[in-house]
Design a protein that fits this description.
The protein is an alpha+beta fold. The chain has 4 helices and 4 strands. It starts with 12 loop residues before the first strand and ends with a strand.
């Protein structure tokens, strides 16, 4: 299945986990500060689909090396996706990030 157009019914899952999927969608991004519109659109389609298949109260857990100041622009959209975001940093020296979105 394509994460940007999933074939699952609405509200099908309590948890969705992403380990590198959004990172792969964004890998052609050369400038981390300036995102090409088509890449922003790809990330939006992914987040819209994840939100659609999540049950209310469900969690979208995204694990990434992408730092919060680069990834929050895609994820921290409570009015658009109906979820609230928290971020956890894991690691000592070399970090990775766990983005936790809870659907309202």
């Amino acid at each position: 299945d394509d994460v940007r157009q999933m074939q699952f019914p609405d509200a099908s899952f309590d948890v969705v986990i992403d380990k590198g999927t959004m990172d792969a969608l964004l890998c052609e991004q050369r400038d981390k500060w300036e995102v090409d519109q088509h890449l922003y659109d790809e990330a939006h389609r992914m987040c819209s689909e994840v939100s659609r298949v999540l049950n209310p109260g469900g969690y979208f857990i995204k694990i990434s090396f992408g730092q919060p100041h680069f990834r929050k622009r895609f994820l921290d959209k409570p009015d658009m996706y109906g979820w609230d975001l928290t971020v956890r940093t894991i690691g000592d020296g070399f970090h990775y990030y766990v983005y936790i979105m809870k659907k309202r």
